[in-house]
Amino acid sequence: MENVSVSEKHRVAAGREADDIVSWLKKRTGPAATTLADAAAAETLVESGDVVVIGFFKDSTSEAAKEFLSAAEAVDDIPFGISSSADVFTKYQLSGDGVVLFKKFDEGRNNFEGDITKDNLLNFIKSNALPLVIEFTEQTAPKIFGGEIKTHILLFLPKSVSDYQGKLDNFKTAAGNFKGKILFIFIDSDHSDNQRILEFFGLKKEECPAVRLITLEEEMTKYKPESAELTADKITEFCNKFLEGKIKPHLMSQDLPEDWDKLPVKVLVGKNFEEVAFDENKNVFVEFCKCLSRAGSQ
């Protein structure tokens, strides 16, 4: 095992499946990055995982190479390689030192640009290691909730709808503008395993397709687009407004009772709360009560 202190011990940051745990153990018990002596070794590593990062350094003892190895040490669930071989440089079309992230989805490859430092590399990996749009499943949940991006936008889309691919493509187009800032997640609203998520957002199956945004900070805050259009432009506009602080949190609401204003004590739900409670022409006293009918009768 690595020679680390108790304070530096690593938890399993990847998934909980057997393959995930085996991959984690291999990473923690071996070198931070595999030395790639030739092009064949590099190709084998690239094919070994959905995401692989390789550092190309003509001098493997350089400061840039050391920064790369520090970044590799900090990432548990992605295999890293390092090479000084001219054949490897040629195969992957690099003329000088560099770092490349290879992946089996989206663009297929991302070349790092900028100063090679540990923090810069970690930000680069964070922005590119996940698909532009990731489907929520039991297998992907650890990556979704265990990642550093805590702002998630969710597309609730039944795979059975006729324009399914078109709506998913619109969502993916918008996602390209927010890499590293907002995680774009697709949820099949037809799947029985996902019904609790719909309930959590106050959605019914017949209301889908729909988009919601949530921040996973100390308090989970939900946001709803003003427009129900699922075009790339509308989704992009919604995300930009959120990042600019121009979107108010979405308060889920019960249905507004027909007789909500017939008694001296009015009934407020999410749909009419702001209109009544913040009426500038009135002084309003609001009591938050779980049993409102009993409170009203008193």
UniProtKB/TrEMBL annotation:
One Pfam family named in its UniProt record: Thioredoxin_6
Gene Ontology biological-process annotations: protein folding; response to endoplasmic reticulum stress
Record carries keyword Isomerase: yes
Keyword ATP-binding: no
Superkingdom of the organism of origin: Eukaryota
Annotated SUPFAM superfamilies: Thioredoxin-like
Keywords (A to Z) from UniProt: Isomerase
Residues spanning the membrane: none
Protein name: Protein disulfide-isomerase
InterPro entries: Thioredoxin-like_sf
GO terms assigned for molecular function: protein disulfide isomerase activity
GO cellular component: endoplasmic reticulum; external side of plasma membrane
Similarity annotation: Belongs to the protein disulfide isomerase family.
